[in-house]
Amino acid sequence: MMENSPIPIDLDHLRRSCGSCALHELCLPAGIGTDDLELLDATVHDKRALDRGKTLFRQGESFHALYVVRSGSLKSFVESAGGDLQVLGFHLPGEIVGIDGLTSDHHMCSAEALERTSICELPYAQLQHVTGAVPALHRQLMRVVSREMVAEHEHMVMMGRQQAQERLAIFLQGLAVRYARLSRDPATLTLPMSRYDIANYLGLVMETVSRLFSRMEAAGILSVNRKAVRILRPDLLAELCGQSGTPYADHAD
Amino acid sequence: MMENSPIPIDLDHLRRSCGSCALHELCLPAGIGTDDLELLDATVHDKRALDRGKTLFRQGESFHALYVVRSGSLKSFVESAGGDLQVLGFHLPGEIVGIDGLTSDHHMCSAEALERTSICELPYAQLQHVTGAVPALHRQLMRVVSREMVAEHEHMVMMGRQQAQERLAIFLQGLAVRYARLSRDPATLTLPMSRYDIANYLGLVMETVSRLFSRMEAAGILSVNRKAVRILRPDLLAELCGQSGTPYADHAD
DNA sequence: CGACTGATTGAGTTTCCTCAAGAACTGTGG
DNA sequence: CCACAGTTCTTGAGGAAACTCAATCAGTCG
Q: What Pfam families is this protein classified in (chains A, B) (predicted)?
């Protein structure tokens, strides 16, 4: 797969560098000058690929790095003493995970690959060093952290809905929006997570989610085939969201 | 209230300074040297008191500062187009709010005082200036942000519980833990928020919360009198949490 | 003192959960 | 390539928990 070119290291570096990454504008490099970008590049370790089901970090482990999804997807979750778990989020390319570990130097949740996933690792000690030297990077890091916090707020808004159908509709619509950000077709969703994960994320049981998919398919809103979901009627889906799907739509300037 | 002393400004400053604040160890000053503390002090604007029901900032407003609760309490919430809202959190002294505004330079939620509340305002432009000069402050800011994120994860774990009683138990226990951090009696809770706010926060309706309070009082676990709640049997309360109340109890080293 | 807001309690209904069986897809090995 | 086991998902029937509607009670504030 990886042929030996005359200057293999440079090519390798170039291909993986933050500057050439497709996620450039979503990730930490956004708004950073080329000189400073090299500093950032030096701190990014490439973690290669995680196979489906493999954990990136586990709850309780000591914290030493932040991670950015490069391709594929992750789920993050907490396990309680009783053994039951709560899915906290699904993470698509360009999204950061591991921030929760900063406050106590231990990861407070686990992160697991939902499919074959590649990751950029940002050792925190080094990252701190660079943010100290590059104020723009500090600001961008805070922006990205803030974005994750807003995503969690959206999760709560969804969990707060009484009607199960609203929750699923908001979930699907949110996913479509994130697909669009990644320049994917927002109407053609490939759900990398199981029905169990979706249900847990939404605060429901698997059977309810399954029934809702069937109901929404019968209503002509979706076409559902296991992990392949097509949004046929975005207008009707938006209606099901009960005006709560886009709580942050209005940015009054 | 504020008598004229020979050097009024110094006294005033001393009383309000981060160094003398009781929340010192919970807040941004933690682990900062005295010299750097003066730099931080200079950026902190005192917002004085907000009366009950007054908003600190409103969803959609442009972002320009972070805020720390000094005394009293806040609730943060999002309003959807339909008019219904979701309570995202209750904020006690030492806790930071406003981080969600960083990602788009607009506040993505609103914050309102639940009682007479005093606030420290940290204009973000100035704060950034200081964090650039004081690496320890940058690290501490990230820690505090991370702590807020962990708090949101706890909220989700609670919302994910099916049983309404578990949710309320986890809520009360979490509040007790935060009271303890503030050196208050963790068994004597004074709930500054309404039953409606509690219910909304838990993803329930007011009547259910009210019934649960009554049921837990009948079971001898609590004594409830409006906003005054005493935890009579912490052991039974912990039992109701269903082993999910303290998901982060184990920090395996 | 009376209107008002906030909280409690009751009765009835709906939604979603539980339990259970069956169908469809995945992957492995012959 | 097919058979088979294992997993994941779907669908059904029944019941329980929480919601809705409604009335009452208690504090609060003018």
A: cNMP_binding (PF00027), HTH_Crp_2 (PF13545)
